[in-house]
Design goal:
It is a single chain. By secondary structure, the chain is of the alpha+beta class. It folds into 2 domains: about 300 residues, Bira Bifunctional Protein, Domain 2 (BirA Bifunctional Protein, domain 2, 2-Layer Sandwich); about 90 residues, Rossmann fold (3-Layer(aba) Sandwich), CATH 3.40.50. About 35% of the residues lie in helices and about 25% in strands. It is built from 14 helices and 17 strands. The protein is elongated.
């Protein structure tokens, strides 16, 4: 028997109902915030991601040569694809350009709880100007999406990578040389980060200052000891988010997001009920377009790990009520079968979700099946109903039945 590839999953009908339900919630919330959906290919030229993350990323992704000898890979994330799309086709659209997307991504890593080789991301990007309003709007959308799903126990941690970059630059470490250090700080690998800073010629006092800064966390007042424009910038983002009604905010200067293209505000969202693997969203402001041959443009965005978010929703006990269909049509006799198909066709054309018995079951078994698929009503068609051009409408919850003229059935069910 052929098994599915390691790190992938199959989703049954009930699982897909849950996934589509929350996916649609996220889409609707993004549209409410003025974002518009885009889609990009599942595979891209490998160079798109090596330019952004370096050649070492090839070891972590599904990269291969196609039949034409081109270096191709399955996309490991969506931001680079969206920015490539922006540069090639969307630069003339009015700004700010507010885009969102949902799709599969692929990474070759060890599967574990909430982490797969094929996974799903919901993300958004704002392409416009470098203002606190832009950053706050991105964070606000991420928070609003999570709240719409029913998630309540989540924490937003906001930082600014410019603070650490400036400290490293003052100590003589800037540009690409700073990236390995930031990556270690992002993973809280302090001994490794200290060793890299020492190798770069930084003194003990400068190293201790960087480490101490990454450990600055807490309410907005922790920024009182942070000098410079970055601290003031975070305060402004913080104030805008509070004005929009978000209160579960904290400052965390240890949020590094160790990728080279992040330039300013960075943030992460945690769901504490997930334990050690609690991060469900991350993002920040970045500069990426010039790397792909476009003009330099300010962007900010985020990605929500859809699979891990569903685990957080489940951990909180958020209920999902399976929608079911409105009507299940049951022919009582062989002579009523054609009429049953006329009725189900009429309902579907009227926009009423409906199904019909195609197994030639008896009435009792058909009603049990209607209950198992969570149908709200059974529409029974028998000899008596044929004679009066009517149907018997049965409420599956209460068991109450009434005779309804067939032509009035769509209106009755819609009401």
């Amino acid at each position: 028997m052929i098994q599915r590839p390691r790190g992938t999953r199959d989703f049954g009908p009930e699982e897909m109902e849950v996934r589509r339900h929350f996916e649609d919630m996220m889409r609707k919330e993004a549209a409410l915030h003025g974002f518009r959906e885009v889609a990009t290919p599942i595979f891209e030229h490998t160079e798109l991601f090596t330019l952004k993350s370096g050649p070492g990323v090839v070891e972590e992704i599904y990269a291969f040569q196609d039949k034409g000898g081109r270096e191709i890979c399955l996309r490991p994330e969506l931001t680079a694809s969206v920015m490539r799309f922006f540069i090639s086709d969307l630069t003339n659209l009015p700004r700010p350009l507010k885009l969102f997307y949902f799709g599969q991504c692929f990474r070759y890593e060890r599967p574990q709880a909430g982490r797969y080789r094929e996974f799903f991301q919901f993300g958004a990007e704002i392409i416009g100007s470098p203002t606190p309003e832009t950053d706050a709007e991105a964070i606000g959308l991420a928070a609003a999406i999570l709240e719409r799903t029913g998630l309540r126990d989540y924490r937003i941690r906001i930082g600014h990578i410019g603070i650490l970059r400036e400290m490293l630059a003052r100590a003589g470490v800037s540009g690409d040389a700073a990236l390995p250090i930031l990556q270690r700080l992002d993973k809280k690998e302090y001994p490794e980060a200290e060793a890299l800073m020492a190798q770069a010629g930084m003194g003990r006092e400068a190293i201790d200052g960087v480490i101490a800064t990454t450990q600055v966390t807490g309410p907005i007042t922790v920024l009182d000891g942070v000098q410079g424009p970055a601290g003031a910038y975070i305060r402004e983002v913080y104030d805008i988010l509070q004005a929009m009604g978000f209160s579960n905010l904290s400052v965390d200067l240890g949020v590094v997001r160790g990728l080279a293209y992040y330039t300013g505000m960075v943030f992460e969202v945690d769901a504490p009920k997930l334990g050690a693997e609690k991060q469900i969203c991350g993002g920040g402001s970045y500069s990426l377009s010039e790397l792909f041959g476009g003009e330099k443009v300010f962007s900010t965005g985020f990605a929500i790990g859809f699979d891990r978010t569903l685990l957080a929703i489940q951990a909180e006990g958020v209920e999902f009520v399976r929608p079911g269909i409105t009507a299940y049509v049951v022919p009582v006799t062989d002579s009523a079968r054609m009429r049953a198909f006329q009725v189900v066709g009429m309902l579907r054309r009227a926009g009423v979700s409906a199904d019909v018995d195609i197994m030639r079951r008896g009435v009792g078994k058909s009603l049990r099946y209607a209950s198992s698929i969570n149908a709200k009503y059974a529409v029974i068609v028998g000899e008596k109903e044929l004679e009066s051009d009517s149907v018997t409408l049965r409420d599956m919850a209460s068991g109450e039945q009434s005779l309804v003229r067939a032509e009035e059935l769509p209106k009755r069910l819609k009401e």
